[in-house]
TrEMBL record:
Keywords (A to Z) from UniProt: DNA-binding, Nucleus, Transcription, Transcription regulation
Database matches in InterPro entries: Sterol_Uptake_Regulator, Zn2-C6_fun-type_DNA-bd_sf, Zn2Cys6_DnaBD
Lineage: superkingdom: Eukaryota
Positions of the Zn(2)-C6 fungal-type domain: 16-40
Record-given protein name: Putative Zn2Cys6 transcription factor
Record GO terms (molecular function): DNA binding; DNA-binding transcription activator activity, RNA polymerase II-specific; zinc ion binding
Signal peptide range: none
SUPFAM superfamilies given in the database record: Zn2/Cys6 DNA-binding domain
């Protein structure tokens, strides 16, 4: 039976900055504090200032409007954004974790996303942000500049999404689901890449829980329009993903951690159900990466697993329950199977190390499988 590790945890949301979301930002809700932006009025967002407050007439006699139009077209092209757009359209590795069946058009989300991004600027900003994030990985000598672009563009994307939000319907459900997917990829990449000065579990868990809550929240909003989505261009992807996550687990890679949860006296029935559910999804993920006949993206669960877990499991992670941390170590082992993917790298090995350090010697038996799995691949 695992007991709590010997290291003392600090308050998880102690250092969280307000994200200025309206009417109340999600991070302030999570940290249980009063939002400083609660009583502020959301300003009108002008996406295209030259046209946001007037009509452009095509009449030859309207010289003022014609002059405005000419000045707009004389403005310099933002070559930095053009670089991101070209990279987005030409790089095959950028969205390698995009889910879908084999023999489908490569990166179907991207082609549709570029089209929809012209209608929903928050989606275009997020696509450009993720492109900048990838270039930061590819060109480490210029990573500071690209990371700055990525943060700026993503912040703008979320701001526009919050400001323009009314309700989800047939006209915007595809845009919102695509936004959720790309944002999730981006947040996961940032979370797995971050290495804190103290290099410990508390700092990682703060970032990880924020990623899970935000990704799950936006995805949940999008999926409230599932009926409309199933009549959209995304139907093949949604159907395949639903089929993937509803599979019955076949292997026994997670048997030891499953036994740990069943034997845990400190977990209530609801907590055990939450743990067993995420363990089931982990085993489906292991089954896929080990299968030679996988008819789809075998790494789909690497990005999907964090948001599949119910809030009860996230709460166990926040509380640093040893059983939940042991499950997270198995997710680290699953991630390690995708170490060749640019979003993943050595994140699995890093996660296993900080979890092992936190649990101490009492966790050695329960972490034997993920430790053996990762060490074996490093030899």
């Amino acid at each position: 039976m695992l007991r709590r590790g010997h290291k003392k945890s600090r308050t998880v949301f102690a250092n969280v900055q307000c994200d200025e979301g309206r009417p109340i930002c999600s991070l302030c809700i999570s940290s249980g504090r009063e939002c400083s932006y609660l009583n502020q009025v959301t300003p009108q967002t002008h996406l295209i200032p030259a046209y946001s407050h007037r009509e452009v007439s095509t009449s030859p006699g309207n010289t003022a409007s014609q002059g405005t139009l000419d000045r707009t077209f004389e403005e310099e092209i933002n070559l930095k954004h053009m670089e991101l757009l070209v990279h987005l359209a030409t790089d095959k590795e950028l969205l390698i974790l995009t889910h879908g069946p084999k023999n489908q058009v490569p990166n179907p989300e991207l082609a549709l996303g570029l089209k929809k991004g012209l209608e929903s600027p928050y989606l275009m900003y997020q696509l450009l942000a993720f492109s900048a994030r990838h270039l930061a990985f590819l060109k480490p000598e210029h990573s500071t500049s690209y990371l700055h672009q990525a943060v700026t563009l993503q912040t703008r994307a979320v701001s526009i999404f919050n400001a323009s939000w009314t309700e989800i319907n047939q006209s915007n459900c595809v845009d919102i689901l695509l936004f959720s997917s790309i944002l999730g990829h981006h947040l996961l990449t940032d979370t797995l890449a971050k290495r804190t000065p103290e290099d410990g579990l508390d700092e990682f868990m703060t970032n990880y829980v924020q990623f899970v809550d935000m990704h799950r929240g936006v995805h949940t909003i999008a999926m409230t329009a599932k009926t409309q989505l199933m009549q959209s261009e995304l139907e093949p992807i949604i159907s395949w993903s639903a089929s993937f996550t509803s599979r019955s687990p076949r292997g026994n890679d997670c048997q030891r951690v499953r036994d740990l949860v069943n034997q845990a006296e400190s977990l209530g029935m609801e907590d055990k159900k939450a743990c067993q559910l995420v363990i089931k999804f982990l085993q489906v993920g292991f089954d896929a990466v080990f299968s030679e006949d996988e008819h789809g993206n075998r790494y789909h669960m690497l990005c999907t697993w964090p948001m599949l877990g119910p809030p009860e499991f996230t709460a166990l992670l926040v509380a640093r329950k040893p059983e939940a941390l042991a499950i997270l170590a198995y997710y680290a082992a699953l991630l390690h199977h995708g170490k060749h993917l640019w979003q993943i790298g050595d994140a699995g090995a890093y996660m296993l190390r900080i979890i092992s350090d936190f649990l101490g010697s009492e966790g050695e038996y329960w972490l034997e499988y993920p430790r053996h799995s990762i060490l074996q691949s490093l030899q």
